[in-house]
Design brief:
- This protein has five helices and 29 strands.
- With about 375 residues, the protein is mainly beta.
- InterPro entries: WD40/YVTN_repeat-like_dom_sf, WD40_repeat_dom_sf, WD40_rpt, WDR89.
Length: about 375
């Protein structure tokens, strides 16, 4: 484990994307799964200007952009078996599928929800067979909507209707959905109602499908799987709390809660710096270790190690972002981290990488002009000018 912690602490900036003409917050990131090739080739980013941008994973060179969304984007995911297929969920009640090999701006497939659906979370399962999206609460209802995702690339721009919904297990906005990385029928969902639900969607109905309900006592902002064979579930909350449960203990007398931290900002001591927010978590399979990623409003990124005895700081990544970091993706094959933030920058971090200082200086100048335009964190600008 120490070796992995050293490796994470040694992450350095390897590449920066050049800033686009229309700067936007980078809200969600996914890295293509290395299906055909040895390493992943693409990075997809959903942006606050309602666009999806695709970059070369090695160089962070911009490849293409999809901006035909009428609503707000919520999430971006690559298919597991085909690294040129990317999905996005939208507040207009659709999940769209794009093929980045094609020169068209049109989605190759549209998965449509029901008329009142506003999707704010989604995922596709590990076998690329099922898509699930979570809705905002409408009147008294909130839904998990499911579609059959097979036959994506060969049916033109057909619209697919849902297979069905779950409607009983949450009573507020479903903020996060995460399929199990290995077992295609397992799904965990999190909501502003504080509940984290684990389902086996192979079961006939919603009641039977609901395997466990864990209560975070707060609005859920991030969820994930961890542990050997991914039998644990963890979540973060909008008030920077953290909960970690062992689903394998459900049928035993053992308590399922591994750790519950009401406010991670108070629980982690950081010399000469602070922790303002959590971004998410990453489970490092080789080390069987869960890490949290948090940060500061000036762009520092803190890597935090999780144990049943508590949380501890592994290291801080500095000098990359100049504003709040909103998204990241851990590239397991490359042992690399991709991050995006409110400074409109996309960064690739690798162990002991060296960035050429020329590009760094140029991009820093641009970043500050971006900050003036989007007026993020004026206080940090003032302090830099002194």
């Amino acid at each position: 484990v120490e070796k992995i912690e050293e490796q994470l602490a040694s992450l350095r900036i390897a590449k920066r994307s050049t800033l686009s003409e229309e700067p936007a917050y980078l809200l969600d990131i996914d890295v293509s799964k290395p299906a055909q090739s040895a390493s992943s080739r693409f990075v997809a980013v959903s942006c606050s200007n309602k666009s999806i941008r695709v970059y070369n994973r090695e160089t962070l060179n911009f490849l293409r952009e999809y901006s035909s969304h009428p609503g707000i984007l919520n999430g971006v995911r690559f298919a597991h078996a085909c690294d040129s297929i990317v999905f996005s969920a939208c507040s207009d009640g659709t999940v769209k599928c794009w093929d980045i090999r094609l020169a068209t701006q049109k989605a190759v497939q549209i998965f449509s929800g029901y008329p009142s659906n506003v999707f704010i979370s989604f995922d596709i399962n590990c076998s690329d067979l099922i898509i699930c999206a979570g809705t905002e609460k409408f009147e008294k209802d909130t839904f998990l909507v499911f579609w059959d995702a097979r036959g994506i690339t060969n049916c033109g721009s057909a619209t697919k209707e849902p297979l069905g919904v779950y409607s009983e297990s949450h009573n507020d906005d479903i903020t996060r959905i995460c399929f199990h990385p290995i077992e295609s029928s397992l799904l965990v969902s999190g909501s502003t109602d504080g509940l984290v639900n684990v389902f086996d969607i192979n079961k006939d109905n919603e009641d039977d499908a609901l395997i466990s309900t864990c209560n975070s006592d707060s609005s859920v902002s991030f969820i994930g799987w961890s542990g050997k064979d991914h039998k644990q579930v963890y979540c973060m909350t909008h008030d920077e709390g953290f909960c970690w449960w062992d689903i394998a203990q459900l049928d035993t007398e053992e308590p399922i809660t591994l750790l519950h931290v009401l406010d991670v900002r108070d629980a982690v001591s950081i010399e000469n710096d602070t922790l303002h927010y959590l971004v998410g978590g990453l489970y490092h399979e080789k080390a069987d270790k869960l890490f949290l990623i948090g940060g500061t409003s000036t762009g520092n990124i803190h890597l935090i190690s999780c144990g049943t005895d508590g949380l501890s700081l592994v290291g801080t990544l500095c000098g990359g972002h100049s504003a709040t970091v909103r998204s990241f993706c851990w590239d397991l094959a490359e042992e690399a981290l991709v991050t995006g933030g409110e400074d409109a920058q996309l960064l690739l971090w690798k162990p002991r990488a060296v960035e050429r200082s020329l590009t760094k200086k140029a991009s820093m100048k641009i970043a500050s002009s971006v900050q003036k335009r989007v007026r993020v964190h004026n206080s940090s600008l003032k302090s830099r000018k002194k």
